[in-house]
């Protein structure tokens, strides 16, 4: 197995394996462990404020001198219109009643209290900290930001969930495409159509590699040598892996969440908008059952902000009925060893495969 390729050259890593950014799960320790194993760690910065981004980048640098990527959410924010405000009030009231009925005490913010992050502030922070590999999801960067990154010699990785999105990213000058199969855990990176594409990894990866001429990373369902090699056969240059690390020593998930993962049944893994307003794949629970097909789902990021405190309270109370546990379709033992060992084992298994 020859690991060296266009991506190991660009990233300066031993392997074209990428530890997926996972907001809420990824820690500086996980990123450093992945990079120290010769893969590319990815620090999830989501929509965190710029100061927090800087703190996390510096914490990671204290743990590794190897390259790692940072990852941000690039999304349009709907302005607060009277209609949105009315929907917000209605949804908040409903959630208050629901949580009272189900016995969890929490606060829901007013729409005026919500703090939204503009990704341009994060870009400034990332450039100040001299980060050289930036991945993003939920949208495409504007041309000015792309130009600024290029001037600073930053490698850009954009996420697609359809061939159309891949072409848009390539045409706007993004260096590498991360193809997200429907198997993937966490949020869908879809950004072109209101109705999101739900294309399986097999179909999507094969079609994207035929449609674009830039390097392609695949993410969604990779959990062992077989799945990694299957995506290589379909044309992937890099392998982005998330769920495999959910139970690892460096994961920010709590023990009750890891326990839930390790007892998962296949029919409990669902795509849902109920927690954040954007589709994400995770574990069905009481909150999802109550909200999913209701009128009480606001557009992202408003639903996300509205439910944030509830999820925080549920985590503190170790109440799996109200936390969002994101995971992909490949069920594993969710090993509790270090991310570094999980990666080294995967590399060895792949080298010895067949
Ligand atoms: C818990 C969790 C959180 C995630 N958060 C992010 C994120 O912050 N940014 C991002 O680009 N992708 C995120 N993803 C998606 C991953 O980047 C990747 O597409 C996915 O993990 C690959 O599929 P797999 O989970 O089957 O390995 C997340 C995935 C999970 C499981």
From TrEMBL:
Superkingdom field: Bacteria
Catalytic reaction equation(s): 3 propionate 3-nitronate + 3 O2 + H2O = 3 3-oxopropanoate + 2 nitrate + nitrite + H2O2 + 3 H(+)
CDD domains referenced in this protein's UniProt entry, alphabetically: NPD_like
InterPro entries for this protein: Aldolase_TIM, NMO
Entry's Gene Ontology BP terms: response to toxic substance
Cofactor: FMN
GO molecular function: nitronate monooxygenase activity
Record keywords: Detoxification, Flavoprotein, FMN, Monooxygenase, Oxidoreductase
Family named by the database record: Belongs to the nitronate monooxygenase family. NMO class I subfamily.
Protein name: Propionate 3-nitronate monooxygenase
């Amino acid at each position: 197995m020859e690991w060296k390729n266009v991506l190991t050259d660009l990233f300066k890593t031993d392997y074209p394996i990428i530890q997926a950014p996972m907001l809420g799960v990824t820690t500086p320790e996980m990123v450093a462990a992945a990079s120290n194993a010769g893969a590319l760690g990815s620090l999830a910065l989501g929509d965190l404020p710029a100061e927090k981004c800087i703190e996390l980048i510096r914490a990671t640098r204290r743990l590794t001198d190897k390259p790692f990527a940072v990852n941000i959410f690039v999304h349009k924010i709907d302005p607060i219109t009277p209609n949105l405000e009315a929907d917000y009030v209605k949804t908040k009231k409903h959630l208050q009643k629901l949580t009272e009925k189900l016995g969890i005490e929490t606060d829901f913010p007013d729409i005026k209290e919500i703090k939204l992050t503009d990704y341009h502030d994060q870009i400034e922070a990332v450039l100040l900290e001299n980060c050289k590999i930036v991945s993003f999801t939920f949208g495409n960067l504007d041309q000015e930001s792309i130009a600024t990154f290029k001037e600073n010699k930053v490698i850009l990785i954009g996420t697609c969930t359809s061939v159309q999105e891949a072409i848009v990213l390539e045409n706007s000058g993004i260096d590498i495409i991360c193809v997200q199969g429907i198997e993937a855990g966490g949020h869908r990176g879809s950004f072109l159509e209101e109705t999101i594409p739900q294309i399986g990894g097999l179909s999507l990866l094969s079609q994207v590699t035929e449609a674009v001429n830039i390097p392609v990373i695949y993410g969604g369902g990779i959990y062992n040598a077989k799945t990694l090699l299957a995506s290589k056969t379909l044309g992937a240059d890099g392998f982005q892996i998330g769920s495999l690390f959910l139970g690892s020593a460096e994961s920010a998930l709590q023990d009750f969440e890891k326990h839930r993962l390790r007892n998962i049944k296949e029919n409990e893994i669902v795509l849902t908008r109920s927690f954040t307003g954007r589709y994400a794949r995770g574990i069905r629970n009481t909150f999802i059952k109550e909200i999913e097909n209701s009128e009480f789902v606001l557009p992202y990021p408003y639903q996300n902000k509205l439910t944030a405190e509830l999820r925080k309270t549920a985590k503190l109370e170790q109440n799996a009925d109200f936390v969002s546990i994101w995971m992909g379709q490949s069920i594993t033992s969710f090993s509790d060893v270090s991310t570094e060992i999980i990666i080294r084992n995967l590399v060895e298994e792949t080298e010895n495969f067949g």
